[in-house]
Amino acid sequence: MLGCQLGGRNLVERHEAEKGATGMAVLQHALDIFKLKFAYFVQRIIGMDELFEVTFSSLADSGKALSRCGKCRRYMKFIQAKPSRLHCTQCDETYSLPQNGNIKLYKELKCPLDDFELVLWTTGTKGKCYPICPYCYNYPPFRDMRKGMGCNECTHPSCVYSLDASGVSPCVECENGILVLDETSGPKWKLACNKCNIVMKCFEDAHKVTVAGDDCEKCSSMLMTVDFNKAKNPLTDGSTQYTACLFCDPIFTSLCTDLRHARMTARRPPPRGGGRGRGRGRGRGRGKPPKDKMSQLAAYFV
Predict the structure, then answer these.
(1) For residue 225, which of 181, 269, 160, 163 has the smallest C-alpha distance?
(2) What is the number of other CB atoms lying within 10 angstroms of the CB of residue 283?
(3) What are the tens digits of pLDDT across the range 100-109?
(4) Closest of 202, 155, 195 to residue 172, by C-alpha
(5) In angstroms, rounded to a whole number, what is the distance separating the alpha carbons of residues 198 and 148?
(6) What pLDDT digit, counting tens, does each position of 223-252 carry?
(7) Helix axes 23-43, 45-55, angle to 10 degrees
């Protein structure tokens, strides 16, 4: 393994210096050695692959088919192991996805820019949920977008899944966020900020909720159109459809009072000293006391 071991360069230079070779000849001799080593490993790489296949599986053989690729129209495989990603075996390309959530197909709908099927990223019924184009998520189509943005931050002017179509108003908590309608949340409809973890529940049991094309004259928020359920209709005139501002109309504001942080999938560590006992109040569920006296004494002071 001449040239790879420690002090190999000194050995090569000393060996060639004894023969009176020039510096260029020494360099060429070392390059020839590494070229032969490279050819040797390339010819025998199959043996290395066979050793790895005993323990590991290739990316093409792992995962399950989820959504179609916009280039070859074949199904891409969803690799659930972290970091979760989509892999197209036909194009031999891998697309990263947002982490710490669940990924599922979004009604086989396609992005109008690249024909990739959209997927949904969700943290559960009480958390956030928004669609993602795998290609746009990795290769932003517009200059004002960056890698890692979903459809709830896309600035496409005419796409029905973009921010322009589903954005309602600026976030009430953070500075740069926009409250976006989660169209998959019905009948327990909710708005979620596309920057922070704010979630607002509204219009529960309504048949349909959409963002109207006009904005409010008072606060400049987008108007919303709601088709109410007849069993829970707040309108007194008998109609079931109503269009108004979420923050200025008294009927809408009375139906949208639940504002909280979205529950993310990461769990908090359990409190110290707590057990699996019954009850949720302080002092309950501490578990059985330790048997030995020293442990009892330590538990008493803790």
Answers:
(1) 181
(2) 7
(3) 899 999 999 9
(4) 195
(5) 19
(6) 999 999 888 888 888 889 999 998 888 898
(7) 50
Answer whether 185's CB lies under 8 Å from 209's CB: no
DSSP-H helix ranges across the chain:
8-19, 23-43, 45-55, 134-138, 163-166, 250-255, 293-301
- Residue 29 corresponds to which amino acid? H
Cα 107 to Cα 68, 138, 158, distances in angstroms: 12, 21, 20
| Sheet containing 222-227: order of strands | 208-215, 222-227, 241-244
Q: Which residue has the tokens 């008493």?
A: 300
Q: Is 209 helix (H, G, I), strand (E, B) or coil?
A: strand
What does DSSP say about strands 198-201 and 117-122: parallel, antiparallel, or unpaired? unpaired
Tokens of 76: 């891409």
